[in-house]
Amino acid sequence: MFTNSGLDANTRLLVVAAHPDDEILACGGTMARALEAGAVVCVLFLGEGVSARFPFGSYESDQFHEESRHRIASAKNSLSILGVSDVIFGERYCCQFDTLPQITLTKEIEQIMQRFKPTILLTHNPSEVNIDHRATYEAVEVACRPTRPFVPKQIYTFEIVCSGNWTFETTFKPNVFVDVSAFWEKKLAAWHCYSGEVRPFPFPRSDTGLETLARYRGMQAALDKAEAFRLMRAVV
Q1: What is the domain range of residue 179?
Q2: Is the separation of the CB atoms in 75 and 50 below 8 Å?
Q3: Rounded CA gap, 52 and 64, in Å?
Q4: pLDDT score for 4
Q5: Segments of the chain scoring below 70 in pLDDT
Q6: DSSP assignments along 16-77, one per residue
Q7: What pLDDT does residue 2 have?
């Protein structure tokens, strides 16, 4: 299971995220912990993360291309701090995954699973404001039909501070907690590579906001700081 013994040299951890920065917010500490234990980690981004900040359809400006390049560079720098080198960048426009056939997302996830052969998969949960997060979850759910040999035995969902905090009713209900206390500074260093995304508290993606969530999840499991996940399926 996803325990100390489950994050080791035999672990092949695949993170399927909608946009660059989701991976650090959700599981930066867990990736750092896994890598220190000798695991192999791959991160798949299904889309880019800046187009929603521009007028709809206006994606040809120099500013848009510059911000897109900056986001990719930020992701590469962030993941290099953790030690992740296997990264796939998608180009789907932010907050527009719902305009695409689901099969386009599903097929890409399947291809990466076939190539990487993960033992554990982490992805978004369906209780998020961001529609791309929900679409990613649904595509993973389809891609992980348990009849193919490349589907991992353990599948978990994670939470994104902001998107997960701002839903009206449904909420993320974790049942697995990873102690990231010893990796917190590395997570913050990786997060700070996403310059422009960090804002002052009380914005949730502030340093204080991230630590508040980590301490809250830690309290749920008698830990100092934790990242929380929900086990969706495990085959033993």
Answers
A1: 4-234
A2: no
A3: 10
A4: 47
A5: 1-6
A6: EESSTTHHHHHHHHHHHHHHHTT-EEEEEEEE-SSGGGS-TT---SHHHHHHHHHHHHHHHH
A7: 57
Does the global pTM surpass 0.85?
yes
Cβ density class 5-30: b for 16+ within 10 Å, e for less: ebbeeebbbbbbbbbbbbbbbbbbbb
- Distance in angstroms (rounded) separating the CA atoms of residues 224 and 228: 13
The total number of residues shown for the chain amounts to: 236
- Give the number of domains in the chain: 1
| Cβ-proximal residues to 99 (8 Å cutoff; 6+ apart), any chain | none
Q: Which of 217, 196, 156 is nearest to 6 (CA)?
A: 156
CATH classification at residue 75: 3.40.50.10320
Q: What is the DSSP letter of 93?
A: P
Q: What is the pLDDT of residue 13?
A: 98
- Provide the greatest CA pair distance for the chain: 51
| CA separation for the pair 25, 1 (Å, rounded) | 23
For residue 72, the model assigns a pLDDT of 97
